[in-house]
């Protein structure tokens, strides 16, 4: 029986923030769903009911059920059990219960009782939305005008920042996390500026290269945008290529565990950053094996970009490498030591 | 063994020497057969040591018995042809098929290019002009043309200054007094000096001027092309036949429609025969087939263009600092040749200094370069003087008399005027950022805070850094 009043829908308002972000990030293929809560009151029988055998020791149903049973006995019409009963209704005539209500509900009750229209008229409007502004209904857009100055707050020149503060507002996390990580992986001998130039060249190459053709035998991660969108969003292109070939496990060789001097191969799950790091290192290895066709500074960047395109198009040898690791992991899955169940 | 038998077997051995190299090498008969008298130094060096044998040629199969990493097969594929790598590095790409077409982008045309309303707008270049600009090598590989669907330029404040100059020359051209305007384009690194020169050339092409552009002064003076003294010149000048021939072919390609309209009227005496009823384009094209006659052809072409009734001329050079110093060429007595003694450079510098005027009017533009340019104290000083003179003619800086200066440089830039390229204004920055966003190269909402952020990151609107911050993903 779903509750009549879903608490979650009430609490959720649309958090709308015009994000000043350069790139849009990959959305995960499936959204993390809010687990559907089951309340005790939702269940058909309270949990205590099935434990006790005796009828008299079983607890009574809640107020609505009780009322319904009473109504059934007396032959009158009770409350509809298919809908929940709001607390206000339950405590309507009970003074003592009203006093013990939480303060929020007490206030709400008080406000409701004194909700008679105000007398007299004001010379100004107290409406929050502009009358006749054409903006229509206020659909719960939070922080729509973030920069409105707060005149009442003293000592604040530019207004308060809107909360929550966006992720990239932090100085050290101002760039896309994948671009940051790949830049650091491209770096050699601590020359970060060179790595940044290479990163820029890679993104430029991805941006000017023709639309990739996806190999159906090598599917990209689910939820990937159509290939025609990729060159216009090179960061997404890069993330897609890396995440598509990223392995989900690595194989740890435990010495002596198998006996007879054989190492026991244990698959170990990888975190997201670890997965991307592994994938990028594979890509860089196979890019450095490519032939340099040009000359000058951009040679390596060009080869890496070509390799990334090859990954998306399913031509790269990195795919075989990933599949080999996964195959080995599946074969060795019996070696995984799980924590003992209690 | 009898002596006869022994002799016979010895004889046999010597016959078999060719067949059995291993025996032969041990036999006494393998004394090296050298000529009695030789001046060759073949045996002077020490014998090759073991392990010093030259590595096998590329693509040759060798025995590789190594195991592991070193056993990887050698790359036997074909290497790029000579010059191919450089061509790839210097390739100029002017379009990006992935970029979106900007629907509001309008092309410049002959009529609209001089209008004042263009200021602060992004305008497209018509295809004919793009071809012409490509022919005169006005596009540089470092510029961001390859990101957009087709080339477009921002008509910024300095562009409008140059457009004013063009108007001025054309208005003066209607009267008797023709005007020659000379400007040096200066500014910080990446502030768009070469692009401004390109914009000026664009206006020239659109207004049917004759446009002559020296794409990079370094190419003239770095001794990569052949040179020869010009007979009968005092002091000796040096011509560069290959470079001049190339320049003439560029002029002919880029200005073809203009040059075709005019017939040769003077009787130039050239070492090559001129076809009868020859127009100026054909005259310029003569140099392609006869590079050795290219300098006389260039002089003849210039004389033709100086005849009355011919269009104004726009002369441009980029990276001008390279032609303000000694070139890398050497004279017959092993002294460096000053760049002003090279015939092409002399020709240009005479017009830049105002020593020779353009008969039909025109503009001489010299752009400095922020990267890859030598420090020329005389040039820097002259620019300072020119800027100070514009502010207050009475109060100009003086050269420190105890320091050496190249007097030829100071003389040639004596009364030059300077166009200082500053950063974009915020409105211009907004226009260009909106163009980036409309092309799909920038994924952001163009708001005032965003524009201000990029404008400040770009050093108060330096357009090169603005592009880098907004489009190039250069962190």
From TrEMBL, chain A:
Residues 111-125 have a biased composition (Low complexity). GO terms for cellular component: mitochondrion; ribonucleoprotein complex; ribosome. Signal peptide: none annotated. Residues 41-56 have a biased composition (Basic and acidic residues). One of its GO terms (biological process) is translation. Residues 175-333 form the Small ribosomal subunit protein uS7 domain. Gene3D superfamilies: Ribosomal protein S7 domain. Its main location: mitochondrion. It comes from the Eukaryota. Keywords: Mitochondrion, Ribonucleoprotein, Ribosomal protein. Transmembrane segments: none annotated. The keyword Ribosomal protein applies. Residues 41-63, 108-135 are annotated as: Disordered. CDD domains: uS7_Mitochondria_Fungi. InterPro entries: Ribosomal_uS7, Ribosomal_uS7_dom, Ribosomal_uS7_dom_sf, Ribosomal_uS7m_fungi. It is found in: Mitochondrion. Belongs to the universal ribosomal protein uS7 family. Component of the mitochondrial ribosome (mitoribosome), a dedicated translation machinery responsible for the synthesis of mitochondrial genome-encoded proteins, including at least some of the essential transmembrane subunits of the mitochondrial respiratory chain. The mitoribosomes are attached to the mitochondrial inner membrane and translation products are cotranslationally integrated into the membrane. PANTHER family: RIBOSOMAL PROTEIN S7 (PTHR11205). This is Small ribosomal subunit protein uS7m.
UniProtKB/TrEMBL annotation, chain B:
Keywords: Mitochondrion, Ribonucleoprotein, Ribosomal protein, Transit peptide. GO terms for cellular component: mitochondrial small ribosomal subunit. Pfam families: DAP3 (PF10236). It is found in: Mitochondrion. Residues 75-86 have a biased composition (Basic and acidic residues). GO terms for molecular function: structural constituent of ribosome. Residues 41-89 are annotated as: Disordered. Belongs to the mitochondrion-specific ribosomal protein mS29 family. This is Small ribosomal subunit protein mS29.
């Amino acid at each position: 029986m779903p509750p009549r009043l879903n608490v979650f829908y009430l609490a959720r308002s649309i958090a709308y923030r015009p994000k000043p972000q350069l790139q849009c990030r990959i959305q995960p293929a499936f959204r993390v769903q809010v687990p559907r809560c089951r309340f005790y009151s939702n269940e058909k029988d309270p949990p205590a009911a099935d434990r006790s055998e005796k009828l008299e020791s079983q607890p009574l149903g809640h107020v609505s059920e009780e009322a319904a049973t009473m109504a059934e006995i007396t032959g009158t019409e009770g409350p509809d059990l298919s809908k929940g009963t709001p607390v206000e209704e339950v405590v309507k005539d009970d003074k003592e219960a009203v006093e013990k209500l939480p303060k929020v509900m007490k206030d709400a009750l008080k406000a409701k009782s004194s909700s008679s229209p105000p007398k007299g008229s004001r010379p100004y409007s107290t409406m929050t939305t502009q009358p006749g502004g054409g903006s229509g209904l206020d659909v719960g857009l939070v922080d729509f005008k973030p920069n409105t100055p707060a005149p009442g707050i003293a000592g604040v020149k530019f207004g308060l920042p809107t909360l929550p503060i966006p992720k990239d507002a932090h100085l050290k996390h101002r760039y896309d996390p994948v671009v940051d990580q790949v830049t650091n992986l491209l770096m050699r001998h601590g020359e970060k500026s060179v790595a940044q130039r290479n990163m820029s060249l890679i993104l430029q190459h991805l941006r000017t290269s023709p639309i990739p053709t996806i190999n159906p035998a090598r599917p990209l991660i689910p939820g990937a945008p159509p290939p025609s969108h990729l060159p216009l969003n090179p960061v997404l292109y890069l993330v897609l290529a890396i995440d598509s070939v990223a392995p989900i496990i690595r194989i740890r060789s435990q010495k002596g565990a198998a006996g007879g001097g054989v190492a026991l191969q244990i698959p170990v799950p990888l975190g997201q950053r670890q997965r991307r790091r592994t994938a990028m290192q594979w890509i860089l290895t196979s890019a450095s094996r490519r032939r340099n066709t040009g000359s000058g500074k951009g040679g390596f960047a060009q080869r890496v970009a070509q390799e990334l395109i090859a990954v998306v198009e399913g031509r790269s040898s990195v795919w075989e490498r990933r599949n080999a690791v996964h195959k080995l992991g599946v074969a060795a899955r019996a070696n995984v030591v799980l924590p003992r169940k209690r | 063994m009898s002596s006869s038998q022994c002799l016979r077997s010895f004889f046999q051995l010597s016959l078999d020497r060719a067949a059995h190299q291993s025996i032969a090498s041990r036999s006494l008969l393998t004394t090296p057969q050298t000529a009695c008298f030789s001046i060759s130094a073949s045996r002077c060096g020490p014998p090759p040591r073991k392990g010093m044998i030259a590595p096998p040629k590329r693509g040759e199969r060798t025995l590789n018995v190594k195991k592991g990493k070193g056993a990887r097969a050698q790359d036997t594929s074909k290497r790029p042809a000579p010059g191919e790598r450089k061509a790839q590095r210097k390739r100029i790409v002017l379009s990006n098929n992935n970029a979106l077409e900007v629907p509001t982008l309008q092309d410049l045309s002959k009529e609209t290019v001089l209008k004042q309303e263009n200021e602060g707008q992004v305008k497209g270049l018509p295809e004919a002009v793009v071809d012409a600009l490509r022919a005169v090598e006005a596009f540089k590989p470092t510029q961001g043309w390859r990101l957009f669907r087709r080339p477009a330029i921002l008509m910024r404040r300095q562009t409008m200054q140059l457009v004013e100059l063009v108007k001025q020359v054309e208005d003066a051209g209607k009267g008797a007094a023709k005007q020659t305007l000379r400007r040096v384009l200066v500014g910080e690194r990446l502030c768009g000096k070469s692009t401004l020169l390109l914009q000026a050339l664009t206006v020239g092409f659109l207004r049917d001027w004759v446009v002559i552009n020296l794409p990079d002064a370094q190419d003239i003076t770095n001794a990569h092309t052949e040179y020869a003294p010009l007979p009968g010149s005092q002091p000796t000048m040096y011509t560069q036949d290959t470079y001049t021939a190339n320049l003439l072919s560029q002029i002919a390609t880029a200005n073809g429609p203009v040059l075709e309209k005019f017939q040769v009227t003077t009787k130039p005496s050239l070492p090559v025969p001129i076809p009868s009823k020859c127009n100026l384009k054909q005259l310029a094209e003569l140099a392609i087939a006869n590079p050795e006659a290219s300098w006389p052809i260039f002089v003849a072409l210039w004389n033709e263009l100086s005849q009355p009734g011919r269009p104004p001329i726009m002369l441009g050079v980029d990276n001008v600092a390279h032609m303000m110093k000694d070139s890398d060429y050497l004279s017959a007595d092993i002294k460096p040749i000053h760049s002003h003694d090279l015939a092409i450079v002399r020709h240009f510098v005479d017009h830049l200094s105002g020593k020779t005027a353009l008969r039909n009017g025109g503009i001489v533009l010299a752009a400095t370069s922020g990267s890859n340019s030598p420090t020329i104290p005389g040039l820097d000083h002259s620019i300072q003087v020119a800027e100070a003179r514009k502010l207050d003619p009475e109060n100009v800086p003086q050269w420190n008399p105890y320091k050496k200066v190249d007097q030829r440089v100071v003389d040639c830039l004596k009364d030059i005027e300077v166009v200082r390229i500053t950063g974009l204004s915020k409105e211009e920055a907004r226009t260009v950022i909106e163009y980036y966003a409309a092309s799909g190269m920038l994924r952001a909402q163009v708001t005032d805070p965003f524009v201000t952020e990029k404008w400040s990151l770009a050093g108060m609107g330096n357009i090169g850094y603005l592009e880098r911050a907004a489009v190039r993903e250069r962190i």
